[in-house]
Automatic annotation (TrEMBL):
Organism: Agrobacterium bohemicum
Protein known as: Bifunctional NAD(P)H-hydrate repair enzyme
Family: In the C-terminal section; belongs to the NnrD/CARKD family. Belongs to the NnrE/AIBP family.
Catalysis performed (reactions): (6S)-NADHX + ADP = AMP + phosphate + NADH + H(+); (6S)-NADPHX + ADP = AMP + phosphate + NADPH + H(+); (6R)-NADPHX = (6S)-NADPHX; (6R)-NADHX = (6S)-NADHX
YjeF N-terminal domain: residues covered: 15-213
Primary gene name: nnrD
Source organism, top-level taxon: Bacteria
Cofactor note: Binds 1 potassium ion per subunit.
NCBIfam families xref list: yjeF_cterm (TIGR00196), yjeF_nterm (TIGR00197)
Known role: Bifunctional enzyme that catalyzes the epimerization of the S- and R-forms of NAD(P)HX and the dehydration of the S-form of NAD(P)HX at the expense of ADP, which is converted to AMP. This allows the repair of both epimers of NAD(P)HX, a damaged form of NAD(P)H that is a result of enzymatic or heat-dependent hydration. Catalyzes the dehydration of the S-form of NAD(P)HX at the expense of ADP, which is converted to AMP. Together with NAD(P)HX epimerase, which catalyzes the epimerization of the S- and R-forms, the enzyme allows the repair of both epimers of NAD(P)HX, a damaged form of NAD(P)H that is a result of enzymatic or heat-dependent hydration.
SUPFAM superfamilies: Ribokinase-like, YjeF N-terminal domain-like
Cofactor(s) the protein needs: K(+); Mg(2+)
HAMAP family named among the record's database cross-references: NADHX_dehydratase (MF_01965), NADHX_epimerase (MF_01966)
Length: 491
């Protein structure tokens, strides 16, 4: 994946290592804190110039130091500023103490703060430096601020929000603006953290990018910059077989809609040929509802063997509307060395025997699994039950266990590869949660796989395109609208 600070997601532990490395390289931590605090003050003045009073709620760590600098900068701009501190100011040390000592106003204990009309809160209590539930005193202040409807600008992360998992540690501020530095953290984009952070602004405070690149890890926000190079340019002499033959399996005659949407999406995503393989009794329904998509009867494993052994048939989507779980298991066993998107009923078929699926996936064939929350929990019960893991870490563990690319669906869909790469998708609107949209996603991913796009890049691109199309269509769109609007990428 290409490293850019715009798309990198750096967890709090890695960010601490980056700070340490920056200091060892000779960069003054005091200068970094000064730039950070000044950036927060600038953001506060930009977003809330009408504020009657800016209230800095500060801890006694580095996040609090950023808050003290911001308070001083706001005072220097002639704003009315109040400072409240959580903890014993006598325990302040290092650059945070220097920032506190530079204030020209006195502070009060945090529990003395009572919101007033016209206040804007600058939350500098914990940032990413919290690993336990918020203390009662902070919980009470959060409650008072929310009850009074006071806008909040959070420094780094809303206090109480886990920067790694994106979940509240008991309770967290709900900020309108979050100001962070150099790069975002997973907690900024994972749900519900994305909602709690409001609008996230990232400021470059001067840490060299070579240091960020060394410690950044393998997690990014999903974006074309990460995978567009995997899509080859169209050759002038290309033909349909060069663009791949995608086979989508259908269920019985009363349940062909899911396969049809997946097939159409795969075709529009750029596959050269798409065939729906269906039970013989479903052929009349499919033949009267499809034109460019071909139809082939397939009732038995013997018929699939003959189809599979034709080298032109290299990529498959199995699951949408399939229905027969025993048949699904048999078909997957025959496709264990083929490019495969396993979705819906294809995943459900292994809910009681996940190890059988993982054993089938022992080879390095390109494979994508697309579970939603419930399917993920049934296929990976121990991973799903570990509350200490973030959604990203769960997807990474599942990918390593299954030897497949995982698309862990939801408002914050995570795409993870067995080698540890992961991308969090943030462009999907809430109205994408509609019947059939997952079938379309499976078809897009299959269409990309058919064109020999590597599995991780195919999955990440499919998820991003899926969200992009939904945004363009707007509220009220249906899965049929999605499938009809799919278009291939043009590098």
């Amino acid at each position: 994946m290409t490293f850019t600070t715009r798309h990198a997601l750096i967890d709090p532990i890695a960010m601490n290592r980056i700070d340490t490395a920056a200091e060892k390289s000779g960069i003054s931590i005091a200068s970094l804190m000064e730039r950070a605090g000044q950036a927060v003050a600038a953001s506060a003045l930009k977003h809330y110039p009408q504020a009657i009073r800016y209230v800095a709620l500060c801890g006694i760590g580095k996040n609090g130091g950023d808050g003290f600098v911001a308070a001083r900068a706001l005072l220097e701009s002639s704003a009315d500023v109040a400072v409240y501190v959580f903890g014993d100011v006598a325990k302040l040390k290092g650059v945070a103490k220097q920032a506190f000592d530079a204030l020209e106003i006195s502070s009060e204990p945090l529990d003395h703060y009572r919101p007033q009309a016209g206040d804007v809160v600058i939350d500098a209590i914990f940032g990413a430096g919290l690993s336990r539930d918020v203390p009662d005193g902070v919980d009470a202040v959060i409650d008072r601020v929310e009850t009074a409807g006071i806008p909040v600008i959070a420094i780094d992360l809303p206090s109480g929000l886990c920067g790694r998992r994106g979940v509240p540690l008991g309770r967290a501020f709900h900020s309108q603006v979050t100001v962070t530095f150099m790069a975002r953290k997973p907690g900024h984009v994972l749900m519900p953290g994305r909602t709690l952070c409001g609008s996230v602004e990232v400021f470059d405070i001067g840490i060299p990018h070579r240091i960020l690149r060394e410690y950044c890890g393998l997690i990014v926000e999903n974006h074309p910059a990460q995978w567009m190079d995997a899509f080859s340019k169209r050759d002038e002499d290309t033909h349909k077989f060069k663009r791949g033959h995608l086979t989508v399996f259908s269920g019985p005659s009363h349940a062909t809609g899911a396969a049809r949407m997946a097939a159409i999406a795969g075709f529009r995503a750029g596959a050269g040929i798409v065939t729906i393989a269906a039970p013989h009794e479903a052929i009349p329904v499919l033949s009267t509802t499809l034109t460019a998509v071909m139809v082939s009867a397939m009732d038995s494993e013997e018929q699939l063997l003959a189809w599979r052994d034709d080298k032109r048939h290299g990529t498959y989507v199995l699951g949408p509307g399939f229905g027969d779980v025993e048949k699904a298991r048999g078909f997957v066993s025959l496709l264990k060395d083929k490019a495969l998107v396993l979705d819906a009923d294809g995943i459900t078929a292994f809910r009681d025997r996940p190890q059988q699926l993982f054993d089938l996936f022992a080879s390095d064939a390109p494979r994508i699994l697309t579970p939603h929350e419930g399917e993920f929990g049934r296929l990976f019960p121990e991973i799903a039950a570990d509350s200490n893991l973030s959604k990203v870490e769960k997807a990474q563990a599942a990918a390593a266990l299954s030897n497949a690319v995982i698309v862990y669906k939801g408002a914050d869909t995570v795409i993870a590869a067995p080698d540890g790469r992961a991308a969090v998708n943030a462009n999907a609107p809430s109205y994408l949660a509609t019947a059939g949209s997952g079938d379309v996603l499976a078809g897009i991913a299959g269409g990309f796989l058919a064109q020999h796009v590597p599995a991780f890049e195919a999955a990440a691109a499919a998820v991003w395109l899926h969200g992009k199309i939904a945004r363009e269509l707007g509220p009220g769109m249906t899965a049929e609208d999605l499938a009809a609007a799919v278009r291939p990428f043009q590098p």
